[in-house]
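Reviewers of the previous submission asked for a worked example of the structure-prediction workflow described in the proposal, so we include one complete record here. The input consisted solely of the amino acid sequence. No template or homolog information was supplied to the procedure at any stage.
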Amino acid sequence: MEAQHTLNHAAELDMGAANDSNPRALRPAPITPATNRYIQERLGRAIRLRRRMMDMTLEDLARYCGVTFQQVHKYESGLCAMSASQLWSISIALGVPVSHFYESLATPEQWRAPEDPHIGTRR
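From that input alone, the workflow returned the following structure tokens.
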């Protein structure tokens, strides 16, 4: 009974922390259809480049990920969005971390949080 009370108390503490307001107000990231398309195309290009560097065919990658080669082609062309789990599977097949595919994407200036003079300067 005591253990259950301790778990409930810990869960309440976690919920409280999750609901606390953020002292630094962030600007909303306006994900427009054009931005979404841009991101899909950049991810697709990065996947295609890595696949070709590894001398892997569409069929090889598709077989590893459990989809058709047409689906992989759609991912690489930016015609179709992929789930996080599908990107994870692709990253494993291509021997790189998921972050590899995002390295070429820069955060647009309008999405960056305003600098807080109490925290210090950004490098």
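The mean pLDDT is 79. We consider this example representative of the routine output the project will generate in years two and three.
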